[in-house]
Fold this sequence. Notes:
The chain is of the alpha/beta class. It has two domains: 31-122 and 252-319, 3-Layer(aba) Sandwich (D-Maltodextrin-Binding Protein, domain 2), CATH 3.40.190.150; 126-240, D-Maltodextrin-Binding Protein, domain 2. Helices cover 45% and strands 18% of the residues. The strands form two sheets. The chain has a six-stranded mixed beta sheet, with helices on both faces. It has a five-stranded mixed beta sheet with strand order 7-6-8-5-9, sandwiched between helices. α6 links the parallel β6 and β7. The N and C termini lie far apart (72 Å).
Amino acid sequence: MKRFCRVAARIVACSALVISTVVRSQGYPAKPVKLISPFPAGGGSDVVARILSPKLAEASGQQFLVENRTGAAGNVGADFVAKSPADGYTLLVANNTVVTNPALAKTPFDVVNDFAPVALVGSTAVALAVHPDFPAKSVIDLVKLARESPGKFSYSSCGNGTAMHLAGELFKVVARVDIVHIAYRGCGPAIVDGVGGQVPILFNTITNTAPQARGGKLRVLALASPTRSPVDTAIPVISESAGFEGFDADIWFGILSPAGTPREVVLKLNADINRVLASADVRERLAVQLFAIQTGTPEKFGELIRRDLDRWSKLVKDANIKGD
């Protein structure tokens, strides 16, 4: 009889745990959720946040409020989320600066241990472009010219330590060329001087370079992506050139929650986000912004974070790159 009672007690306890888990999952969200964009309005993270927020609200029945917490190349917003309660009500709309920043310098958060990966959303390409008067018509042309005249040519980026800067430094290592980095304070000023011909080579976002290329003011040689963009398959990628296989400097975007967020909350958010990304209107809006949609499990996103942190840390060390 005592044995029966013990078994019955275990069954009751397990049932209570299962019921509690289901209730918590079904009950989330029970109040508005904050989507923290660590960059100003109009940037990639902010665009992603504002496209997702109304759709996630429809899916969940609760508001998803976009809040911009900017500063320190995204570190202010990321640190705010890392130190927020792990309940799923404060989420970070991250891009890969959460791995490039720690690769360059100490940050107030640990990107691997202080966050729970929720969902990968998509990516946008870094473009390798040149002024129309520059003689290179392809990546191979550019490499040939740069090898013939080491240190003669310069390239611009959106700032020291940005994804565009790291793409340029990765190109220098892989292509074995010596081109001089000119750091700008933002992608906009770099585009202006690129169009003006002051700096003939640019690593900038495809969002910024594509309109200028259509107007004949820049020439996009290739994308710094592993494969051609589904948004525009006509543009080649650097990895198609001999010896550059696997070249990847895409800017990715995803959702992170504070470490310790309940598993069932992470899985519900992941499912809702993947469902939203499958809708035609969201796909169209992201495509207009030249984002390639990527979905998957929280584990897949976590693997990407760890892999990118390792490879960018190695590049920073090998190329002796310094942050601002």
